[in-house]
Amino acid sequence: MRKMITIVWKQIVQSLETNLSLLTKVSTPQNRCCFFLTIHSYLISEHWSRYLEVTGTFNGFLRKTLTRLIVKKASFVTTVTKNLADAMKKHGLVNDNYVVLDNVVDRVFYQTAKINTKHKATFINVTCFTDRAKNISGLLRVIKSMTTKRNDFTFILVGEGEDLDKMKDYARKLEISKKQLVFKGLLEGEELVSEMANTDLLVMFSNYENLPVVINESFVLGIPVVSTNVGGIHEILNKSNGVLIDRKDESALEKTLVNYLDGKLKFDKKAIREEFRIKFSPEKIGIELFELYQKALRK
User: Fold this and answer.
1) pLDDT at residue 81, as a whole number
2) 3-class secondary structure for 5-60?
3) What are phi and psi of 113, to 5 degrees?
4) Domains of the chain, each with CATH number or no CATH
5) pLDDT given for residue 163 in this prediction
6) pLDDT tier at 208 (50, 70, 90 boundaries)?
7) Going by C-beta distance under 8 Å and a sequence separation of 6 or more, which residues neighbour residue 253?
8) How far is CA 291 from CA 43, 98, 131, 229, 298, in A?
9) pLDDT greater than 70 at residue 18
10) Phi-psi group of 288: left, alpha or beta (phi > 0 → left; psi -120 to 50 → alpha; rest → beta)
11) For 256-285, how does the pLDDT look when each residue is reduced to its tens digit (9 = 90+)?
12) How far is CA 225 from CA 219, 247, 286, in A?
C-alpha cells in the first residue's frame, strides 16, 4: 500500500514539474528530496465541461486538492463562459481573477466558402457522437417525426465517436429516409467549412455543454443556431442569432424547425457574420490574451 502511494505521489509531482513548473526540488543535507511550491506567473485557460454540476465527474480527493492549489496560485483563470467560472468556484476553485475569454475561431472559417444552389432547407449538427451528452437519439426522433409530415428539408450529421454506429442503427430502426438524413462522418478544415456554410441552421440538442466552439464557427459563417439552453450557451445565443429551447424538449425543437421551414423564423445572416467575425477573430482574442500575460508578468 505504501509503495502504491509513493508511486502515485511521484506521478503527481512529475506531472506538476513537467506541465506547470510549480515545484522546486531541493536536496537536504541528509540527501532527502523535498518539494516546495514555487510561485511563478502563469495563466490557466479552461473550457472543460467536467466542472459542470450536471456531469458529476469532477471527483477525487487528490484531483480536487491539487486543482484548488493550482487555480488559487494562478495570476488569471480564463474560461470561455461565466457559467463555467461559476461552476469552478462551486468546487472551491478560488481565484480573484477569473476572466471570460472567447474561444478563437480558426482562420479557415474566415475564407470565402463556395455556396451551392439548393432547393431544400438544410440543417446540420456537428458532434462527437456521445449520446448521453449530445442527445443524438432525441434529435433523431425529432427528425423522424418531421419526415412523416414533410420532405422539404435535409438533416446532416457530422462527426464520429463512440455512439456513431449505435445512432446509425437507431436511424435505420426509425426508418428515416436517407434522402432526408445524411451521416457525413468526420469533416475538418475546408471540408467542414464548406458543409456548414451551405446550411441554414446549426442544430444542437445536447443534454449538457459548456460552450461548444462549433457555435462560434457557425456564427462566423453567418449561420444561426438552434440549441438547448445548457451551460453557457445563453451567454452568446439570443433572438437575433438563434433560438434557445429547454433540454430534452423534442416538441419545442420540432416546432422551432417547422417555424423556420414555414418562414415564421428569420435571421439577418449578414449581421450575424459581421458581428462574430470580429468577436471571435484570432487577432482580437490574441490581443486580449497577450494583455493578460503582460498583467501577469507585472504582478
Assistant:
1) 96
2) HHHHHHHHHHHHHHHCCCEEEEECCCCCEEEEECCCCCEEEECCHHHCCCCCCCCC
3) -90, 150
4) 21-104+281-299 (3.40.50.2000), 107-279 (3.40.50.2000)
5) 97
6) very high
7) 139, 142, 203, 205, 226, 245
8) 12, 14, 39, 32, 11
9) no
10) alpha
11) 999 999 999 999 999 999 999 999 999 999
12) 8, 15, 25
Joined grid coordinates for residue 33: 528530496
Could you count the other beta carbons within 10 Å of the beta carbon of residue 26? 10
**Residue 230 predicted with pLDDT over 90:** yes
Rounded Cα gap, residues 150 and 279, in angstroms = 37
| Cell reading at 277 | 467575425
Q: What is the mean pLDDT of residues 90-116?
A: 90
CA dist 46 and 123 (Å) reads 30
Q: Given pLDDT bands bounded at 50, 70 and 90, which one contains residue 53?
A: confident
Q: Which residue has the cell 440549441?
A: 227
SS (H, E, C) the chain: CHHHHHHHHHHHHHHHHHHCCCEEEEECCCCCEEEEECCCCCEEEECCHHHCCCCCCCCCHHHHHHHHHHHHHCCEEEECCHHHHHHHHHCCCCCCCEEECCCCCCHHHHCCCCCCCCCCEEEEEECCCCHHHHCHHHHHHHHHHHHCCCCCEEEEEECCCCCHHHHHHHHHHHCCCCCCEEEEECCCHHHHHHHHHCCCEEEECCCCCCCCHHHHHHHHCCCCEEEECCCCHHHCCCCCCEEEECCCCHHHHHHHHHHHHCCCCCCCHHHHHHHHHHHCCHHHHHHHHHHHHHHHHHC
Tens of pLDDT, residues 136-161: 999 999 999 999 999 999 999 999 99
